[in-house]
Specification:
5 strands, globular, 12 helices, five-stranded parallel sheet, Rossmann fold, alpha/beta, 385 residues, 37% helix, single chain
């Protein structure tokens, strides 16, 4: 009998060492990549890579939604991914296009409205043209939250798409300094908003702690997994968006906007009846906006609100606004517009009470049409002077 050799034990030992070395190197490589990602500035993400406008059409409005399974849409904080999914990102601006960009809140985005019934959709359906023959095309870059700081952030990004006119519908609920950073889209984009605060000396320095604070770990590959996952989810829902055109849920019924109020309910933003504290309203956003737009005209609109005729409607116009606050706001905006030479339209009562849905600023399709027809003469002055 031949003597036993140590070949098999040696081979087993070598295999084990090889596997161990591979695992160690794999872990080290993953850790290296994980922390190397933290050196990439937030905002430079995979969100810039998109199947929208390539495999399936771009969305008619910025993504927003809390029920992805039914709306084929979701809310995320990556502005690059949001814009990459939008139809405005599809191609270079045609030479024969007069490009209108709309920013603003959920009323302009179009809560409970199909895209064709939004303000941008109605503009596009009207077949307008400029005096030099360019086709008027409107793009909806509004987003469902009330914050002028959010609007400025989106406006800065929107200017890279060569607009010929910016339309900015606003309402008083978007003005208080105390709410500017509370919307998650703003809170999670400190790297975009803080430079705007600094550049335009906006009175929000005392609110900087409200921004989401990112640690080094948050900036790693693992720390950004939610951002990456959301961007990938948005790509997945693009297939269903392309097939159906659905980007929000349209319930058969909803709770109507409040029309009856308590007699003692006179507060707005924690302020009781008296002089409206204009120093605590972000009116400087409009000076910043005119600087950002440069030579591109900016049309500011005080958007329509529900004017209730219900119980104690002599005290409150609607859920948002006691009369004392809203009346002073209108006077303030008119004065500021005249002083700064803004182009400003006050359309606050242009739409009847019956044409509002689940909010004091959300319109029915008929209400949206009335709004557009009221705005149209002013719009035509810009596009065909």
């Amino acid at each position: 009998m031949e003597p036993m050799t140590e070949d098999k034990p040696t081979q087993s030992k070598s295999t084990a060492q090889f596997i161990r070395n591979v695992l160690i190197k794999g872990v080290l490589l993953f850790l290296l990549v994980n922390f190397a990602v933290s050196l990439i500035p937030v905002g430079n993400t995979l969100g810039k890579l998109s199947l929208y406008n390539l495999v399936w059409p771009g969305r008619a409005r910025l993504p927003f939604g809390e029920n992805p399974a039914e709306a084929y849409n979701l809310s995320l904080y990556d502005l690059e991914a949001m814009f990459a999914s939008h139809e405005i990102n599809g191609n270079q601006k045609p030479a024969d296009e007069f490009r209108i960009i709309l920013i603003g809140d959920s009323a302009t985005w179009g809560t409970l409205l199909e895209p064709q019934n939004t303000l941008s959709g109605l503009i596009n359906a009207d077949g307008l043209a400029t005096s030099d023959g360019r086709t008027v095309r409107a793009y909806n870059l509004a987003y469902p939250s009330m914050s002028l700081a959010k609007d400025l952030m989106i406006l800065e990004k929107a200017m890279t798409y060569e607009p010929d006119l910016i339309i900015w519908p606003v309402t008083l609920q978007s003005f208080p300094n105390q709410i500017q950073i509370q919307t998650p889209l703003v809170a999670n984009n400190a790297q975009r908003v803080i430079p705007l605060i600094d550049s335009f000396d906006l009175p929000l320095q005392s609110h900087l702690s409200e921004f989401t604070q990112l640690t080094t770990w948050d900036r790693t590959l693992i720390g950004r997994r939610r951002t990456i996952f959301d961007a990938l989810q948005l790509q997945f829902y693009g297939l269903k968006w392309a097939a159906t055109g659905i980007d929000q849920t349209y319930p058969g019924d909803y709770v109507p906007a409040q029309r009856d109020f308590e007699a003692e309910d006179t507060a707005f933003a924690g302020w009781e009846s008296g002089p409206l504290p204009s120093d605590q309203l972000l009116t400087g956003a409009f000076s910043a906006g005119t600087t950002l737009t440069g030579d591109v005209p900016l049309l500011v609109i005080n958007e329509p609100i529900l004017v209730s005729t219900g119980v104690n409607s002599d005290i409150r116009y609607n859920f948002f606004y006691p009369r004392w606050a809203y009346d002073q706001y209108r006077q303030l905006m008119t004065g500021l517009a005249a002083e700064a030479d803004w182009t400003y339209l006050d359309l606050w009562n242009a739409v009847p009470e019956a044409e509002f849905t689940n909010s004091a600023v959300h319109l029915t399709p008929s209400g949206s049409k009335i709004y557009y027809e009221t705005l149209k003469p002013a719009l035509e002055q810009w596009i065909a002077p």
